[in-house]
Amino acid sequence: MSRHGRRDEAGSALIEAVWLSILLLVPLVYVVLAVFTVQRAAYGVSAAAEAAGRAFTLAPDEGTAGQRARAAAAVALTDHGVDAAPEQVTISCAPDPRNCLAPGSVITVLVDASVDLPLMPDVLGPVTPTIAVDAEHRLPYGTFREDR
């Protein structure tokens, strides 16, 4: 073929590279943003479970222990940007569930939360997809502490 019959393709590789990078980088940036959002929530529920357990064991009596634990969990979740609800915190203890602040008991705090995926358009529906995260923290009350 003669030189005059060929199309001049100078610069088309640059255009293809730009389009390819846009097509690959936009989904990659979204995935990274979604992973960071879920990880932030995971750290939040972990910190909330630990703070709730600590607040529960330091309470003067069992009547206020649950309220303090839920308040501490709500503060920790809010600090991490996770929407907080009191029903997300579940507190149990063993061996006697009726006397959690007894020497030798172990308090278990479970915090559940759900995180909305970021930048979801309204075109996909009114319900935003969520990812559930939870954390469990066990805290021994201590054998040599006083019974409250």
Which key features would you list for this structure?
single chain; 148 residues; alpha+beta; three-stranded antiparallel beta sheet; 2 helices; 19% strand
Describe this protein's structure.
This protein has 148 residues and is of the alpha+beta class. Helix content is 44%, strand content 19%. It contains two helices and three strands, in the order ααβββ. It has helices at 12-58, 62-79, and strands at 89-94, 106-116, 130-140. Strands 1-2-3 form a three-stranded antiparallel sheet. Helix 1 (12-58) packs antiparallel against helix 2. The longest helix is centred in the first third of the chain and has 47 residues, at 12-58. It is elongated. The mean pLDDT is 86. It comes from Nocardioides massiliensis. The chain crosses the membrane at residues 12-36. This is Flp pilus assembly protein TadG. Keywords: Membrane, Transmembrane, Transmembrane helix.
**Mean pLDDT, all residues:** 86
The arrangement of helices and strands along the chain is: HHEEE
The secondary structure category is alpha+beta
> Strands of the biggest beta sheet: in what spatial order?
1-2-3
Radius of gyration: 26 Å
Characterize the largest beta sheet: strand count, sense, and whether it forms a barrel: 3 strands, antiparallel
The parts where pLDDT drops under 50 for at least 5 residues are none
| Beta strand count | 3
Query: Per the principal axes of the C-alpha atoms, what is the gross shape?
Result: elongated
How many angstroms separate the termini? 96 Å
- How many individual helices? 2
State which percent range the strand residues make up. 15-25%
Helix coverage percent: 40-55%
Organism: Nocardioides massiliensis
Keywords: Membrane, Transmembrane, Transmembrane helix
Transmembrane segments: 12-36
Protein name: Flp pilus assembly protein TadG
